[in-house]
Design brief:
This protein is of the alpha/beta class. It has a six-stranded mixed sheet with strand order 3-4-5-6-8-7, sandwiched between helices. Strands 1-2 form a two-stranded antiparallel sheet. It is flat. A hairpin with a 7-residue loop joins strand 7 and strand 8 (275-278). Helices cover 70% and strands 10% of the residues. The chain has eight helices and eight strands; from the N terminus they run ββααβββαβαββαααα.
Length: 402
């Protein structure tokens, strides 16, 4: 049973379970229907309000979009107008710059034309000077050729060669101040069966950094059998090696029509190392060239000499150290033998002293035993079993008492 209270009168009454459930169901259905209707009305009202707001916002957005489009159109029109103005200004600036460049190019062309005319005049003047110099050199060379031809005609084959040697010697003496420490003398040592003509050596800080063996060769135009330069390569190389020279140079007037030997300094190192063939006019230039080239390696040679000296010092030091070790070892062996002898003698002395010590210890023991026995000695012990001595001592004692 359920108790229910009337909300109006306040009276309480009871109902069974079935009636209570029916009443409760009616109340819930009525409240539920009322709530549903209320909620539906609210939703209708909210939907109408939202629809009106959306329509208003849509209208507002549409108007704002139209205004924005109008503004953009106006801005684009202004930009187009401004761009047309700028374009016109840019075109004018480009035209001005182009005109300035054209004017500058015209000025440069005019300057180049003027410079070209000046240079043409200078070139013509230089050509005239060069032509004059060339003609002078050509004339000098022709005169020199004529001189040598005349010289060859007047001298024997031997004298021609000697004259070439004299020429080279004179040329070197003329520039000797450039090589104050150099040695340049005739090769007079034929102990090996052969010799060259001249030997050049140069020094710096007492270090020889370049050496050249020279051979001078020439012959008469009328000589029947003509020699070639390569006929003397082997002998020149042998002379160079015999005299310990680094370079070998053949100063030659042989093969006067050879385009190869007439062009300048000819390197024949592919045949023999560091060998060159030259005409007499290249005698001093080649020496200068080889000296300058060799001086670049002078520092390395100095370092090599220092290293060699250091190696000699190390060798001497090692030799002295070995000698010291040998002498020290000998003295050590002698000292060790003496030391061992002394040890043996000490051991013998120790053994002898030990025997003396043992004897002394034994003597000490005997003396101690003797002393003990002496201290233990008495008249009673001496007269024990000796009536005669006992009587004598008794008599002496009585006399002492009296």
């Amino acid at each position: 049973m359920k108790e229910l209270k009337c909300p109006k009168c306040g009276s309480v009454f009871t109902v069974d379970e079935a009636d209570y459930a029916l009443i409760l169901s009616q109340v819930k259905n009525r409240e539920f229907d009322a709530e549903v209707n209320r909620r539906i009305n609210e939703l209708h009202q909210q939907h109408n309000a939202e629809q009106k707001a959306a329509e208003a916002q849509l209208e507002k957005n549409h108007l704002a979009e139209l205004n924005k489009k109008d503004q953009e159109i106006a801005q684009l029109k202004a930009q187009i107008a401004q761009s047309d103005s700028r374009q016109q200004i840019a075109v004018m600036e480009i035209r001005q710059k182009a005109q300035g460049v054209l004017n500058q190019k015209d000025a440069e062309i005019a300057k180049l034309k003027a410079d070209a005319e000046v240079k043409t005049a200078e070139a013509a003047s230089s050509m005239a000077i060069l032509k004059e110099q060339y003609e002078g050199r050509l004339k000098s060379a022709q005169e020199q050729v004529e001189y040598y031809k005349d010289l060859k005609a007047r001298l024997s084959t031997k004298m021609v060669g000697e004259t070439l040697e004299i020429h080279c010697s004179t040329e070197f003496e003329r520039v000797r101040p450039l090589f104050p420490n150099a040695y340049f003398e005739k090769d007079n040592d034929a102990s090996g069966g052969s010799k060259g003509d001249f030997i050049f050596r140069d020094f710096e800080d007492d270090i020889e950094y370049i050496s050249i063996m020279f051979e001078m060769k020439n012959e008469m135009d009328e000589t029947a059998s003509k020699h070639k330069n390569e006929d003397f390569f082997r002998k020149l190389d042998a002379d160079r090696n015999a005299k310990h020279c680094e370079f070998a140079v053949l100063v030659s007037l042989l093969e006067p029509d050879s385009e190869l030997y007439n062009t300048g300094i000819v390197d024949v190192s592919h045949r023999y190392p560091k060998m060159y063939v030259i005409r007499p006019q290249f005698f001093i230039p080649l020496i200068t060239l080889l000296v300058q080239t060799s001086k670049k390696s002078l520092e390395y040679k100095k370092q090599l000499v220092i290293a060699q000296n250091q190696s000699i010092d190390v060798t001497n030091f090692e030799s002295q150290l070995t000698d010291f070790k040998d002498r020290f070892g000998r003295n050590y062996r002698l000292a060790y033998e003496k030391y061992q002898t002394a040890i043996d003698e000490i051991d013998k002395s120790i053994a002898h002293l030990q025997k003396i010590k043992d004897a002394l210890i034994s003597s000490e023991n005997n003396l101690r035993l003797a002393n003990d026995k002496l201290e233990d000695l008495s008249i009673k012990k001496l007269t024990r079993n000796n009536p005669t001595m006992k009587a004598k001592f008794d008599e002496a004692r009585e006399q002492n008492i009296e």
